[in-house]
Write a structure and sequence with these properties.
Layout lengths: L4 E12 L2 E12 L3 E5 L6 H8 L7 E6 L2 E2 L4 H7 E4 L11 H11 L5 H11 L15 H12 L6 E5 L7 H16 L3 E6 L2 H7 L2 E6 L2 E6 L1 H5 L16 H9 L7 E2 L5 E2 L2
Parallel strand pairs: 3-8, 3-9, 6-7, 7-8
Antiparallel strand pairs: 1-2, 1-4, 4-5, 9-10, 11-12
Helix pairs in contact: 3-4, 5-6
Length: 266
């Protein structure tokens, strides 16, 4: 797979003082795929992300993004990669459209208005595009945040804990957005602590533990590592999430502020 890899990491090492966070990480992410990087708190997921985004220098090993080594030409890497952090980095005073136009202008891109309109439509934000972001739900803010990361048309998008703090509806909105990225050919590296999120989204899953990748494969391959389960007839009860979504409606419906700051529908 390494010949088709949009992200290729070999022997990556990083220490902070006497604490060895990464101890020879190997990772390859195929172009146009979704790779989930799992690991407990402190495993080094964010350190890997920061190195790929040229925000942190490795102590050893190599990291290549879209054919460019991160330490040899960091400027080229920044043009190829976009990083979306754990919390939406949007300006709440501006409208959704204005946020997108602002990023396009900061990148000195031609026709910022057209670029914003394309992303507004692509991410289902047309009805909310000219409202202030302060009126957006958590899921809508995250969708806008991801849309902003695509203004420069990067080939690789890194999503670091993208559903942190979101309710079940917001999570489903983001999941749909991530799938859309891959469908359009964007390579996605997703870090998460939610195992169901990785199972729903990822083409491959890598588990980081003890400073190394201890396993890397498809969800089916990882499940095959354990003994076969015993089949038993059980009565399946709806989960609390099933009840919640049934009561409040399908994910993806825009929320609008009602009287006295309450959230309602028009």
């Amino acid at each position: 797979m390494t010949g088709r890899a949009a992200v290729l990491v070999r022997g990556l090492e990083k220490s902070f003082g006497s604490h060895h966070v990464l101890q020879g990480v190997d990772l390859a992410v195929e172009r146009g795929s979704i790779m989930a990087l799992l690991g407990p708190n402190g495993a080094g997921k964010t350190t890997v992300v920061r190195i790929l985004a040229t925000l942190c220098r490795p102590d050893g090993g190599t990291a290549v993004v879209d054919g460019t080594e991160v330490m040899e030409d960091p400027s080229a890497v920044r043009r190829s990669i976009s990083l979306t952090g754990q919390f939406a980095a949007v300006d709440e005073i501006l409208t959704g459209r204005e946020n997108l136009v602002l990023i396009a202008r900061l990148r000195h891109l031609d026709d910022p208005g057209l670029r914003a309109e394309v992303l507004v439509q692509r991410f289902g934000l047309t009805d909310a595009a000219d409202r202030r972001v302060s009126t957006y739900s958590g899921g809508m803010r995250r969708r806008l945040d991801i849309a902003m990361s695509l203004v420069g048309e990067p080939s690789v998008v890194v999503l670091d804990e993208p559903t942190t703090g979101l309710d079940p509806q917001g999570r489903l909105e983001v999941w749909r957005t991530v799938r859309t990225l891959a469908e359009h050919g964007t390579t996605v590296l997703l870090t998460t602590q939610h195992l169901d999120e990785a199972e729903q989204l990822a083409d491959r899953v890598a588990i980081l533990h003890g400073g190394r990748i201890i396993v890397d494969g498809t969800v089916a391959e990882l499940k095959a590592l354990l003994p076969p389960v015993t089949v038993e007839l059980v009565e399946k009860q709806p989960t609390l999430e099933d009840v919640f979504l049934s009561l409040v409606g399908a994910a993806g419906e825009d929320e609008h502020p009602g009287p006295a700051g309450e959230v309602g529908r028009p």
